[in-house]
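Re: [help] complex structure
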Amino acid sequence: MDTKYYTTWEEYLAEHPELEGKPEQAIAPKIVKYEDAMFTFIMDLLL
Amino acid sequence: MTDAIARTNERNQLFKDLFSGNTPKRVPISNPATQDFAIQYAGLDLAECQWDLTKLEPVYDKFCQDFYTDTYPGGSIRIPSHYQILGSTPIVMSSSGFMQHPDVVGMLAEEYDEFIASPYDCIVETILPRLYTEFNGPPGKVAMALAKAMKAQADDLASLGAIRAKMNAKYGFATMVGALTEAPFDFMSDFLRSFKGISGDVRRYPDKVAAACEAVLPLMIKKGTLPNPSMLGYTFVPLHMAPYLREKDFAALYWPTFKKMVETLAGMGQSVQLFVEQDWMRYIDYLYELPENTIMRFEYGDPKLIKEKLGKKHIISGLYPVTLLQTGTKQQCVDKAKELLDILAPGGRYWWQADKSIIHLDINGPVVENLRAVLDYVHENGTY
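Output below.
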């Protein structure tokens, strides 16, 4: 998706260097989960 | 193993067989009555129960006990709290407590190019503020409204999920998961351009309509993708506008992105259930082209033609006219169920559902008795 309002994990990581060295396997699923939850919520408003 | 777990296992197997094209032990059944119906059946206030979901557990318990079904009945995607918090205009509660969808225009014709350039940006920046009043105003106020609405919806879904888990544990329903999406053309129509708007666009700006459908396709696929695609999960896709299009417009504007979407979702290893609304008989050969074992719940159409043309490749459902439950005798209702069973069940690939959901209940009418008789008849006579 070409959008300002949905960020992939790779894009998020690039924007947040403070996460370097932190447990990515624990952080990534959580960040992605809420990104997807927001996407689903927004789209449901139009379905 | 408890009886309920054994029933769940048996019902899951019915649907695994059905969705994989094998003949199940018997015809699976889904009760077409909705949560709205269940609340009225319990004699409770519709608006109050949708706002206070704690009242729904006994409602569902009675509903599940009194009407045969293999899948969890009811459910609702139109819970009022988050719509109210966001100042919704496309989904509103009527004075009688039913959630309704007035015809709205979320996107103007001159905004096609903006939408095509980035559909999701256009949705967030232009369409939602037009349809939901609380998306307007100072950024902090908008952020807080959005946070409140998401929290409200999450709480409501958790309440409904807890009730569902209890009913599944007690009654042993099949444990299926679902997602919801739309055909790109329908998405452009329903909340964005409106029935009237898209009907004019098809003639005035067909290239822009086609480009918009292509642009929004990735969003519709993402929306319809299950977190963990599996044989017992399906994406529900209600189909709206095709019967109102000329075939050449359908072929050029509706079909290409819709077909791509269904093929992509099916390619992930999950089922797709189409709610084929209105009459699609003139498009029946198109439907044949969709991936094998696509579930097609028809509203109207010729059951014999549907079985003949689609029944060896796809899974057929629907067609039982719920209006008959209100106007017919118990015998007429059962006879209709038998007629459809005789036509559609042979060879498998048949899931008993009605042609549409039952929302309103005239408590003094014959629907309760007729519905119960039909569900029991199919359960008792649908064995292969």
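Chain A touches chain B at residues 1-6, 37-47 (CB under 8 Å).
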